[in-house]
# Entry
Amino acid sequence: MQISAPLAEHSTLAFRRASKALAAALALWAGAAAAGPPERVVSINLCTDQLAMLLAEPGQLVSISRISHDPNVSVMLDEALGYPVNHGQAEEVFRLSPDLVLAGQFTSSYTVGLLRRLGVEVVQLPIIHALDDIPGAIREVGRLLGREDRADTVAAQFEHDLAALRADLDTRPRAALHYANNYTSGDKSLANDILTAAGFANIALEAGLSGGGTLPMERLVMLMPDLIISGQQYPGASRSEAVLTHPAMNALRDRHAGSALSDAEWVCGTPAVLRAIARLQEAGQ
Amino acid sequence: MTRALALVLVALIVALFALSLLIGPAGLSPATSLAALIRGEGLAETLVMREIRLPRAILAAIIGAALGLAGAAMQGYLRNPLAEPGLLGVSGSAALGAVIALQTGFAAQFALGLPFAALIGAVLAVGLIIALAGPRGGALTLILAGIAVSALAGAFTALVLNLSPNPFAASEIMFWMMGSLADRSMTHVWLAAPFIVLGAVVLLAQGRAFDALTLGEDSAASLGVNLSRLRLMLVLAVASMVGAATAVAGAVGFVGLVVPHILRPFVRARPSSLLWASALGGAVLVLAADIAVRVVLPDRDLKLGVLTAIVGAPLFLHLVFKTRGQAL
# Structure
């Protein structure tokens, strides 16, 4: 083999890295294959909590995140109350000796990194930005839990229900999503998909917003939406939420637009969004 | 000369008030704006003008006036150019009172609960400062007392907001410390205006006493000024104005420092004239600052206190440098 010295050194290094990674992957695969489906699953994210509760075998899910016990954001409160909660901190999660931890895309990288260094398998599931990604997420969590059959049933049911609900209209009433701090959601967001599926057009697109962003109240009022979907208000007071009941918004609701509430059902990409779509369709009629 | 000054300041207020009404993300033409504001033409335009822009402009004017007047009064009474509600922790304590009222639900239970709680916070701070510094207290005592009160009030405000069950509350520490007029409404005007007007009437009526005080306390007393009554009036009036202003707009600093300092030469350092001049000047400054935050960063809620501090902090340092040899 005739290669110059530095290059040889480089390629040896690369080879060593690659083989190391391969060995790690093999060990993981072998471990997973040997162990079968995980027996102690801990979820530390509101949305993975819900998918895990939907799919897990009795006894398989040992702890869910604290937030799932908050009635303001949890759509599966009754089920959630049957599980012990964690606060998403590495130490307490490690003490539960899980063989799988389900986390969100934006779960603290310190927590995830620490758990991984301690040898715990952590899977971070991406945030769902579209209705069409929900069946895939259900199947993915099903695969991780070794519950493929149950996941297929839930996903197929969801696809069927969604197809039955989806509105196909020529003229769509225009709706505004108005959250705390005048935040709104544009295209490529779950909220926009829910709104579209329910037969509305999102005024954030008219304002040229992609993804999420703030739409000043003045501009929202000038766009004169037919429906205002307000973010829910949390206990305690905040100035951020004061915009939701600003006199200008109240007057717009009284004199022009209908109103609806964006609540817990809008938060996560789970079958609960179907209820949000159905409620929104009722509000539109 | 004072008459010319009054005319100039009032003209500036009118111009800036009009400008404040015409600036906004909705991009309405001046003609449309006026038609909507005065005749109520067009539902959306009318809502934008009457419910969003008008309260913002009114609040900028009355809050600026309150802070300018409070600063001039405190400086007149303490005979110290460094006295200012923001620096001495009066605004910070008012913010603490407001935050406690909001988080405990007191503000939601009583119509005037919010400004009243802020007033209580401000009374405690002004009372403490005046008691500590006294009419003859040196600048050092005054500023150190102010630092302690500010730090304590700021820490407790952060604590209360961090303990709130509301996920947005903790991120609003910045609003309470720096102040903003974004998305305020007529409700806030009605909450703040009575307290500010009351405080202003009381303070402006004390003009003669403040003039007499420049001759020293003994001479003032011999001229018939009731000093303990003046002190009580000052504490209540300053707290009423600063409390109401802070309850709806957060703590906007340095207005009460900058405005009297700039205007003092124009009124030949006469405290009674400086009081009304500072009220007008404060309105000019805050109206201008609130226009600037919307022009500089229209998409972000840039805080008012950032701009007033950029103007005010260098002046404060300059004053510290100047008074270094005298009082400290």
User: Anything to note?
Assistant: Chain B touches chain A at residues 24-26, 43-45, 47-48, 51-53, 102-103, 105, 107-108, 164-169, 171-172, 175, 183, 185-187, 299 (CB under 8 Å). Chain B is about 75% helix and 0% strand.
